[in-house]
Design goal:
By secondary structure, the protein is an alpha+beta fold. Helix content is 27%, strand content 26%. The longest helix is centred in the middle third of the chain and has 14 residues. The relative contact order is 0.13.
Length: 381
């Protein structure tokens, strides 16, 4: 089903007598095939772009590439740089802005500017009753009561189907550069990234990625060319204790490098199950040491995000336990491994209560996780 208006989508949901799987561009195939697909792909178009006010409004099915092109014409961008899951998960189609906001897809720059949900000013969506709901606004300052905007971002379509989003955008920097350090251990890399964030040099990305030299720690700087040049040298001096550095000053090479980091291309061709683990950066080296034999990994967010490919059927949550964090299984051949981190009982009760209010018939993207009161969880991403 592919309704081309908000009213038609609401009618489909009202009349549904079986579960619906919400689909945007089909680039994140992490849900089990339950019920009928309901696509927002026909709800397309940028309906408002005010460059002076740094705001943009688009229908949920609008491809992210279209939005990026619209913004680029005015030297602006989506600062939270949503990743493209297709290289990693093998999905088809094109990423849509509704899917990005529904999954709160945030790239390496999250550590500097915030998550996707922090740039969402307003939403329109259809709940499980087929009722159209509008919340937030089209400007940065508005008072609208309950903040359903933040609630919808990261809800994965379980509370309602997004039909329109209003976004804050930011200017595009003049240039970008990367400071790279080869040969560090995970613990040394996390220490280097932590030190980099503690400097005044405005690091906007910090990652530890596999390379032909073993592993490479990458630190990104953005802004005016003269400023970036000065900060790159100063940052290198500040991190001199971590060995020999390489400065990547070609803006396009640096952009391509961070595009690969954002989309986790270093792990894309690896066979096995794919996991995304959000943890405290200081805990990352210990968790990496506890990964199963044969695992491959990449760190982002200064060590706060671990991407891991592990042998198929490995329940990584059980392998790593106990841990403080949030592990999402994005691809597995084992049907008994839930996608999302099982919630502690009090949080699960709140989640179930919200889903009961917004989707009382339980027809929208049914959950495949159960509560686990013995597991600590520290914030969904």
């Amino acid at each position: 089903m592919r309704p081309d208006t908000e009213e038609a989508l609401a009618r489909v949901i009202r009349e549904a007598d079986a579960p619906l799987r919400i689909v945007g561009g089909g680039t994140r195939p992490i849900w089990p095939a339950r019920g009928n697909d309901l696509s927002t792909g026909a709800l397309t178009g940028v309906t408002l772009h005010d460059p002076g006010a740094l705001t943009l409004v688009a229908r949920a099915g609008t491809p992210v590439d279209v939005i990026q092109e619209t913004l680029a014409a005015h030297d602006q961008r989506l600062a939270f740089e949503p990743m493209d899951h297709r290289p990693l998960l093998g999905g088809t189609g094109a990423p849509t802005i509704g899917g990005v906001m529904a999954a709160n897809v945030s790239g390496p720059r999250r550590v500097a500017v915030g998550a996707a949900r922090d740039f969402c000013l307003g939403v329109r969506f259809v709940d499980g009753n087929g009722t159209v709901v509008s919340n937030g606004g089209r400007v940065m300052k508005n008072v609208t009561g309950y903040d359903l905007v933040k609630l919808m971002c990261g809800s994965f379509g379980r509370l309602g189907v997004l039909t329109e989003v209003s976004l804050k955008v930011l200017p595009r920097p003049e240039t970008t550069a990367t400071l790279a350090i080869d040969g560090l251990s995970p613990a040394e890399a996390v220490a280097a990234m932590s030190d980099a964030f503690g400097t005044p040099f405005e690091v906007t990305g910090a990652a530890y990625v596999p390379s032909d030299k073993g592993a490479r720690t990458c630190l990104r700087l953005e802004g005016f060319a003269d400023s970036v040049s000065y900060r790159l040298k100063a940052l290198s001096d500040a991190l001199s204790r971590f060995g020999t550095h390489e400065s990547v000053t070609d803006a396009q090479i640096s952009k391509d490098l961070w595009s690969d980091i954002r989309d986790v291309r270093a792990l894309a061709s690896r066979p096995g199950d794919i996991w995304r683990i959000s943890v405290r950066p200081s805990h990352a080296p210990d968790l990496i040491a506890r990964l199963p034999d044969g695992a491959q990994y990449q760190l982002d967010w200064g060590g706060g995000l671990i991407w891991a490919v592990v042998p198929e059927g490995c329940d990584l949550r059980a392998t790593l336990a106990p841990y403080v964090g949030h592990a999402t299984c994005l691809r597995t051949g084992a049907p008994d491994i839930p996608t999302f981190e099982p919630e502690p009982a009090p949080l699960a009760a709140l989640t179930d209560g919200l889903m009961g209010k917004f989707d009382p018939r339980a027809i929208l993207n049914q959950r495949n996780a159960v509560s686990a009161p013995t597991r600590q969880s520290e914030g969904a991403t």
